[in-house]
Write a structure and sequence with these properties.
The structure holds two protein chains of two kinds. By secondary structure, chain A is of the alpha/beta class. Chain A has ten helices and eleven strands. Chain B contains 14 helices and nine strands. Classes of the chains: A alpha/beta, B alpha/beta. Strand 4 of chain A pairs antiparallel with strand 9 of chain B, so a sheet runs across the interface. Bound molecules: zinc ion. The site of zinc ion (ZN) has 8 residues of chain A, from loops. The site of zinc ion has 8 residues of chain A, from loops.
């Protein structure tokens, strides 16, 4: 059956101008799958929850796409939208870089937080956006996530976070590092109050984000193929002078090594989260 | 072993000259007292000038000095009857972290710290003070033990970072660090953290969620090493000196950013010049911290730590 799909689609390729088509796909209309290298209509991929029609590769989603794939329609109420980054270290060109992404992405920072419903069950949700400064965590990201956890605590709602981040935001130096402790402390307090924490690691979840809230769920879930790990693959290879296996630091690798409860296909994600919520009473808090 | 740091070269040259003069006075029968006195004054002034105006990169050099006192050095001077405990009870014993119980001014405490080696052989055994997950898990095990017996916890931070290795990833480096951050936040005993050398990234922070955080005057604490920052930001690791400035990694920077509580002064030229005296300088601050924190209830200790970290960060509302 797979072969059928491939051969059928081969005909479509012919209409794309050659020879640059394979390397330089016209932005917008067509998209090339980085995994199977096949070219598809962008619209088709979007209609398929941004999953490759051929190989099941999960394309990264931005925060808006993620929210609409998980939450009930029109249930989302955003929080702390107005928090914006300053330049605490006076780091050269930092403000300009953030401004550029703010304009491009039409959002203020690399995480969107708020309340919403999943199959009628209310939750507090945070979604990181890897298209904004690679989803890196600076003061605003740390503060918004902390406030979202505190909101979940206050409202006795489950806390769900979709992570997508290259790690700490270097331009905020040690303040960025400290957000790891701040968010983890908030989760600890929430957890001690019986709050339910679900983390979903999406591509990529690395560095300081993987070494803080992303790994602290009562349920640690991930999307297939997502890169998840602490140190960068290149750094490790340089340190140990050894080539790393192909699947190193993938979601499947982490599942095999006991770091995840489950790897869940994007099309199943909403249903599975809903099930977990259902198994934790209304609001996820055991009275 | 004498190690010459780059910014100390003028001092070293002057000291050499001074020694030569003294030798001449001894051997030949000439009186050079005037010259020697003059030179000594010049040396004194130059020392003052150099050590008072250290650049971030100079401090990085001091923090990395091969003779810089380690956790075990300070344990030796600050505590009595240290009893080291080994192992995470799951995988193994990571010697990049030492942990145990001891007496501090007669009172039982738990002491934990990163541990570098003094020579190559020890460094290999201790993995240059760069822990694997089992190191963090050993630390956490002993923190829970401290909580059970109501002992304060003292952490010495001194690592380039968590070890970037294959096995470390396989055993859950991320989770081990995250778990420590999470659990330390909830401990009901006083936690005092002291950065004594390099405080490198998540690997340092995993022992760093304290009620009080202090730094030695010439220690550093950063999200990434200056070399790492330079190679990512400017694709050039030789710009580490510039990165050390931009990244704001010195004790003075962290005090200004309101991340740490106190800067512990160092003996002239750096802690390695007199370990015993340096231990005394740490002792003063540690005692004050523990006295203050011992007045707080269990609940207050947890709240105090929560508030400390909750307010770290800078942003604005638009
Ligand atoms: Zn594909």
């Amino acid at each position: 059956m797979l072969r059928d799909i491939f051969s059928k689609n081969k005909k479509t390729y012919a209409t794309i101008p050659v020879p640059s088509a394979t390397d330089d796909v016209p932005v917008g209309i067509m998209t090339k799958c980085p995994n199977c290298k096949k070219i598809m209509f962008t619209r088709e991929i979007e209609q398929n929850m941004k999953i490759c029609l051929h190989c099941d590769y999960h394309f990264p989603m931005n925060a808006k796409e993620r929210l609409s794939s998980i939450l009930d329609e029109n249930s989302f109420a955003e929080m702390d939208k107005e928090l914006v980054t300053v330049n605490p270290l006076g780091f050269p060109e930092y403000v300009e870089k953030v401004e550029k992404d703010r304009r491009k992405m039409k959002m203020n920072e690399a995480v969107v937080t708020g309340t919403g419903k999943i199959e009628e069950k209310p939750v507090v949700i945070a979604v990181m956006d890897s298209f904004f400064r690679m989803g890196s965590m600076g003061s605003v990201v740390g503060e918004k996530i902390t406030r979202a956890i505190e909101k979940a605590d206050e409202l006795h709602l489950p806390f769900i976070i979709f992570t997508a981040s290259g790690g700490a935001r270097m331009q905020e130096g040690v303040l960025s590092l400290m957000q790891m402790a701040k968010t983890s402390a908030a989760l600890k307090r929430f957890s001690d109050h019986g709050g339910l924490i679900i983390t979903v690691m999406t591509h990529p979840t690395t560095g300081g984000v993987s070494a803080s809230f992303a790994s602290l769920g009562d349920f640690n879930l991930a999307e297939p193929g997502a890169l998840i790990g602490f140190a960068g693959k290149r750094v490790i290879e340089q340190t140990i002078h050894e080539e790393l296996p192909e699947d190193f630091q993938t979601a499947e690798f982490q599942l095999k090594h006991g770091q995840l409860d489950a790897v869940i296909h994007r099309k199943e994600m909403r249903k599975k989260i809903s099930l977990i919520l259902e198994l934790h009473h209304i609001g996820g808090v055991t009275e | 072993m004498t190690v010459e740091l780059e910014f100390e070269k003028p001092l070293i040259n002057l000291r050499k000259k001074l020694d030569e003069l003294k030798l001449i006075t001894q051997n030949a029968d000439v009186d050079l007292t005037d010259e020697i006195e003059k030179l000594e004054l010049r040396l004194h002034n130059l020392e003052e000038e150099i050590y008072k105006n250290l650049e971030p990169w100079d401090r990085v050099q001091i923090a990395r000095h091969p003779n810089r006192p380690t956790t075990l050095d300070y344990i030796n001077y600050l505590f009595e009857d240290f009893f080291e405990c080994h192992g995470d009870r799951t995988f193994g014993d990571d010697e990049a972290i030492v942990a145990g119980i001891a007496k501090y001014k007669g009172r039982p405490v738990t002491v934990i710290g990163h541990q570098r080696g003094k020579d190559t052989k020890e460094n290999i055994r201790r993995n240059f003070g760069m822990p694997h997950p089992e190191g963090y898990r050993k630390a956490l095990r002993l923190m829970f033990q401290a909580q059970k017996f109501n002992r304060p916890i003292i952490c010495f931070i001194d690592t380039k970072g968590a070890y970037p290795g294959k096995a470390a990833e396989e055993r859950g480096q991320s989770e081990a660090i995250a778990r420590n951050l999470f659990e330390m936040a909830g401990l009901t005993v006083p936690i005092v953290c002291i950065v004594i050398g390099e405080g490198g990234s998540g690997g340092a922070l995993a022992l760093g969620v304290g009620n009080h955080i202090h730094m030695l005057e010439n220690s550093t604490y950063s999200v990434i090493s200056p070399e790492g920052a330079a190679s990512i930001l400017w694709k050039d690791a030789t710009l580490a000196k510039k990165a050390a400035e931009s990244m704001k990694i010195t004790a003075q920077d962290l005090k200004q950013l309101e991340v740490i509580d106190e800067i512990i002064p160092e003996v002239k030229g750096g802690a390695h010049n007199n370990i015993k005296e340096q231990a005394n300088l740490i002792d003063t601050v540690l005692k004050k911290s523990l006295d203050e924190l011992s007045k707080l209830s269990k609940n207050e200790l947890v709240q105090d730590r929560y508030q400390k970290f909750a307010k770290i960060g800078q942003y604005t509302v638009e």
